[in-house]
């Protein structure tokens, strides 16, 4: 599940993929999927292709593919996002679809805090985020979005038919404030936590360690390269909302021969936005950690924080990182304002 970083891609691709299966998204419905199943659209890994792989219905593709259309109209698929969010850009990846990609696509969205059925979605009111636009085959097609509202579902339309390997919907999580009460994971992507800096994401990105649930394998965590120079690897995360950390989880499961020897977690209140002058305070002083073990620690400091820095020594990977605590009252009020202000 490697989270490769493409330096030439637009900046919005560094934001959370709200449509990823890793975040809990699903492909609710599609009008056709004869050649290849719609669920492939949201696989977190890069699309693959096997020249020799044919099934009963034709060439096997790692994507969503409809039949050749013989009637007027167009094909579509609907994705329920893993969490609601403001969408900053969309990637329609037609990897491996060369003679069967859709020449045009469009993206619409809707916002609902209900669990809408496929039937309800079919008759719902959709807003256009990307008007009908050209797409090319075997490529990542990037579309910037400037709308400021939050959305819960997107509809990808393809004209007239064809195949799309992946749909990535990048943006900022807008957490439902009703679920920010009590003890929550302040760094969880589903609560708005996000990676802002890292020393090295050679094999896979630290953005994965804040995804929901347990890691499925080593590829579902953060793995840097073997460090051959001085220093140590690190990742800096913004918490979804300012809060007080009470206990932490440093989970090295699946990292058997490549777990860090030691880890340290420090926190800062960067409410002024100046990360470069942040003053970091240890919430977990540097300590030895075990391989392949979910380790829980009490926070050594009670302080309000907006950002957290995870240092690993000298290098090494983690599968999950959790920071349990309470969102501060003013941050929860701000989240409620954001939920209301951005709703459509
Ligand atoms: N070689 C193909 O990909 N052909 C067809 N698609 C599949 N999946 O077989 C088609 O017509 O698009």
TrEMBL record:
InterPro entries: Allantoicase, Allantoicase_dom, Galactose-bd-like_sf. Residues 24-173, 192-327 form the Allantoicase domain. Its EC number is 3.5.3.4. Pathway: Nitrogen metabolism; (S)-allantoin degradation; (S)-ureidoglycolate from allantoate (aminidohydrolase route): step 1/1. GO terms for molecular function: allantoicase activity. It comes from the Bacteria. Keywords: Hydrolase, Purine metabolism. It catalyses: allantoate + H2O = (S)-ureidoglycolate + urea. Belongs to the allantoicase family. This is Probable allantoicase. The lineage of its organism: Bacteria, Bacillati, Actinomycetota, Actinomycetes, Micrococcales.
